[in-house]
Amino acid sequence: MAPAGGRESSAGDGGGGGRKAEAAEEEWRARRESIPPYMRAVSGSLGGVVEACCLQPIDVIKTRLQLDRSGNYRGIAHCGATVVRTEGVRALWKGLTPFATHLTLKYALRMGSNALFQSAFKDSSTGHLSNRGRVLSGFGAGVLEALVIVTPFEVVKIRLQQQKGLSRELLKYKGPIHCARMIIHEEGIFGLWAGAAPTVMRNGTNQAAMFTAKNAFDIILWKKHEGDGRVLQPWQSMISGFLAGTVGPVCTGPFDVVKTRLMAQSRSGGEVKYKGMIHAIRTIFAEEGLLALWKGLLPRLMRIPPGQAIMWAVADQVTGLYERRYLQNAHL
Questions:
Q1: How far apart are the C-alpha atoms of 83 and 98, rounded to whole Å?
Q2: At what angle do helices 131-145 and 196-222 cross, to 10 degrees?
Q3: May I ask the CATH architecture of the domain 36-327?
Q4: Are 95 and 160 in contact (CB under 8 A)?
Q5: Which of 18, 19, 36, 306 lies 20 to 30 Å from 51 when distance is taken between CA atoms?
Q6: For residues 159 and 238, is the Cβ–Cβ distance under 8 A?
Q7: What is the dihedral angle through the alpha carbons of 178, 197, 149, 58, rounded to the nearest 10 degrees?
Q8: Residue 95: helix, strand or coil by DSSP?
Q9: CB proximity list for 104: less than 8 A, separation 6 or greater
Q10: Domain range list for the chain
C-alpha cells in the first residue's frame, strides 16, 4: 500500500514534479562531461574515408559539368558515360587520393574544431549551448577547414579532374604530388589557395547550417539529445545526415561554381580570365546567364546529402560507442 500511495502522491503533483524532474535532467545533461574533441575528430576522419570511396565518381562528374563551357556534356548520365567511354572506368575515380586525404583531414578538423568552438560558446554556469552558439561554432569550423585543408586539396583535385585523356605521359599533371609541385613552381605557393574566398563562404555557411540542422533533426525525429547516452541506429543517423546536407548546396551553389572556376584556371600563362570572386560571379552571369551560377547543383545534391548520410552513420556509431562506454560508466 505504501508504494502505491507514493505513486499517487507523485501523480497528484499535477505534473509539477515531473516538470521539475525533466528540468533537472536537462540541466544534468547540459552539465555532464561531453565527448572530447579528439574523439569527434576521429569519428569524422573515419566517416570521411568511407564517404570518399563511395562517392568519388559523382564528384568527378560535378567538376566536369562545372568546367563545361561549350556544352560537351548533356547531363549527369551523359557526362559519366562519356568519361567511361573515352577515358575508362577508372577515370571516375580520378583525384581519389587527394580527395580521400582531403576528406579525412577535413572531417577531422571540422568535427574537432566544432567541438572546441561549442565548448567556448556554452554557458559557463549551465553548460547549455544556444542555437546562435551552435551556428557560430559551425561557421567557425567551416572557415577553419576551408583555409587549412579544403582549398589547397581541392585545387590539386580539380586540376587533376579537368585533365582529359588516357595517356599519363600526355597529361600535364602526373599525380597529386607532381600537381602540387607544378602549381607552386609556376604560380607560387599561393596558387594552392586559388579560390579561397568563395571556399570560405561556401564552407562556413554549409557547416553552420549542417551542424545546426543535424542536431535539430536528431531531436525532432529521434528524440536524441547530445550527451544522453543513446546511440542512434545507422539508418537513423543517415536520415538525419541526409536531410541536414540538403540545404547548403542550394544556398552556396554560386560560391561552389566560382570556387571551381578560380581553382581550375592556371596562372602560368600570365593573364587569367577571372580576377577574383566578385569578378567571376559577374563574368559568369554576363556570359552564361544566372542559372550558370548553379551549374553542377544536381550532382552536388547527389553527392553531399548522401555523403553526409554516410559520414554521420559512421561518426555517430564511433562517438556513441565512446559515450556509452566511457561517459555513461563514469556517471554510474
A1: 20
A2: 140
A3: Alpha/alpha barrel (1.50)
A4: yes
A5: 36
A6: no
A7: -80
A8: coil
A9: 45, 48, 49, 52
A10: 36-327
Whether 143 contacts 200, CB under 8 Å: yes
First to last CA, the chain: 30
272: left (phi over 0), alpha (psi -120 to 50) or beta: beta
DSSP string across 44-65? HHHHHHHHHHHHHHHHHHHHHH
Q: What is the pLDDT along the chain (332 residues), one digit of tens a residue?
A: 444 444 444 444 555 556 665 555 555 454 445 788 999 999 999 999 888 888 888 888 988 888 888 888 988 899 999 999 999 998 998 878 877 887 898 899 999 999 999 999 988 888 788 999 999 999 999 999 999 998 998 899 889 888 877 677 778 888 889 999 999 999 999 999 998 999 999 999 999 989 999 999 999 999 998 767 788 999 999 999 999 999 888 888 888 899 889 888 877 666 788 888 899 999 999 999 999 999 989 888 888 899 999 999 999 999 988 887 776 665 54
Query: Torsions phi, psi of 34, nearest 5?
Result: -100, 170
Distance CA 208, CA 225 (A): 18
pTM for the full model?
A: 0.73
Do the beta carbons of residue 145 and residue 207 sit within 8 Å?
yes
Q: How far is CA 68 from CA 7, 71, 73, 153, 295, in A?
A: 71, 6, 7, 21, 9
Secondary structure class of 114 (helix, strand, coil): helix
Q: Using DSSP, how many helices (H) and how many strands (E) does the chain show?
A: 15, 0
Q: What is the CA radius of gyration of the chain?
A: 23
